[in-house]
Amino acid sequence: MKHLSILAEEDDDPMLSAVNLVDVFLVLVVALLTAVALQQQAAADENVTIIKRPGEPDMEIVVREKGQEVRFKGNGGSSEGQGVRAGVAYKLKDGNIIYVPEAGASQP
Questions:
Q1: Cα 107 from Cα 86, distance rounded (Å)
Q2: Would 64 disulfide with which of 48, 51, 82, 83, CB 3.0-4.6 Å?
Q3: Model pTM?
Q4: How far are the Cα atoms of 35, 42, 45, 57, 68 from residue 63, in angstroms, in the given order?
């Protein structure tokens, strides 16, 4: 009687399945790295304002617009000057800010 072998001799090696898993993980890692690189590139094109150390005397504001970065640094003191009240700003629950000018305030 003839013996039927379902598995060929090269299929008996357990390292082949480990090599296949390594290949799958390499493809997954390359896909994730590509996604991260594309996300960072898209983030670089956005207009972003970052406030570092808010409320501290050495507070810094970083504004990124159209790939250019501008930094504003505090001098440790509060600003003083002459001026008049121009209006009132209200912050809504959704984060929007509405400015209501004072009656009689001059518009620029």
A1: 9
A2: 48
A3: 0.35
A4: 25, 16, 12, 19, 8
Burial class (CB in 10 A: 0-12, 13-18, 19+), 95: exposed
DSSP H helical ranges for the chain = 15-44
Six token digits for residue 35:
């996604």
3-state helix, strand, coil in the chain (%, to 5): 30, 25, 45
Q: Are 49 and 63 in contact (CB under 8 A)?
A: yes
Strands 97-101 and 48-52, by their bridges, are unpaired
Alpha carbons 105 and 84: distance in angstroms, whole number: 9
